[in-house]
Amino acid sequence: MIRMSAVDKYFGSLHVLRAIDLEVPRGQVVVVLGPSGSGKSTLCRAINRLEPIDSGRIEIDGVGLPAEGRALAQLRADVGMVFQQFNLFAHKTILDNVTLGPVKVRRQSRDAAREEAMRLLERVGIADQAEKYPAQLSGGQQQRAAIARALAMKPKVMLFDEPTSALDPEMVNEVLEVMTDLAAEGMTMLVVTHEMGFARRAAHRVLFMSDGEVVEDAAPEGFFGAPKSERAKDFLGKILTQ
Ligand SMILES: Nc1ncnc2c1ncn2[C@@H]1O[C@H](COP(=O)(O)OP(=O)(O)OP(=O)(O)O)[C@@H](O)[C@H]1O
Fold it and tell me: What are the residue boundaries of the ABC transporter domain, all occurrences included (predicted)?
């Protein structure tokens, strides 16, 4: 579903993604771990074409480098993205936030989009907040709204970039539960997170990045039980004693 081959990305002289080869099959949940600055966010942004790459190729469901704007729009619609900051439109209700994309981009009728949005808000547990504005919701509820908004575009892949890092601890689990359900339903997911519980529970595969490289690519049991590289041992040592 996601295929990256020989992807390189530089910021000036900084080599942020180094010859990344990655294949994520349909329905697989991949957790990306790594120290700050290792390139995890850039990887997500490259997959969603928010960040242009310098060389290599990225395909989503067989669709590769966009030749024209239309292909780019399609590619973006196929990849739902949830960031650390929820980025909801402050002056629109939660329901309007979720219906905007389907109406404007997918050309769905307003009624159909609202019906679908209510179903999604139900699914993430905040249907009763539909007519409220983002500032009236807790961080956890806003992040669940952001997940519903991404799902409303019917993505083939969901990317999560530290979706719980900005949340108060008591709200982390409600967001992780929604993500765990999505994973169980077969969504293809790439998740950058420091939540090791989620990685152990929901991931099929763990990628460990360091200095722009994928240093380890293993099943969670293997990675947590017996990391191979010194860099991964060091990282786990630090994070597990925090
Ligand atoms: N727009 C940019 N311009 C220049 N350098 C950038 C830009 N975005 C990221 N970088 C640099 O690229 C490197 C990788 O950043 P990236 O955000 O991908 O790492 P990360 O692993 O996601 O880190 P964190 O866990 O702190 O979010 C870092 O050194 C960062 O400072």
Answer: 2-236
